Amino acid sequence: MSDARAREEALAAVDRYLAALNARDTEAIRAAFNFPHLRIGAKGNLSRFEKPADYDFGHFYRATSRDGWHHTQWDKTEAVFASEGKVHVAVDFTRYREDGSVIGHYFSLYIVTCQDGHWGIQVGSGNGT
Asked: DSSP character for 99?
């Protein structure tokens, strides 16, 4: 697989994740991941999900609901490194309330991998939840 094709696959996985997140669809979020899945939070805390059943959307929702989170929108997505089975994707995004007011602007780096032909986010690290 070419680096260009790997970049396309990785960006598509990141977009699937955002669509699932905004839909609050835990199964679709899990489908956009590869496992074990790791999250490194803004304070350096590490969460590890060994298998799909370990990931619960409720964790994200509880952390963001106090701000009135309704949806997230990508401001920019960029594949900054690509190899045959791994792509690093930098994303800038904005979180919004239902009325369209901005909660904040954030940055994350996702490491998207290919496991058995499935492209999914394996590691996420950012300054948001």
From this structure: T
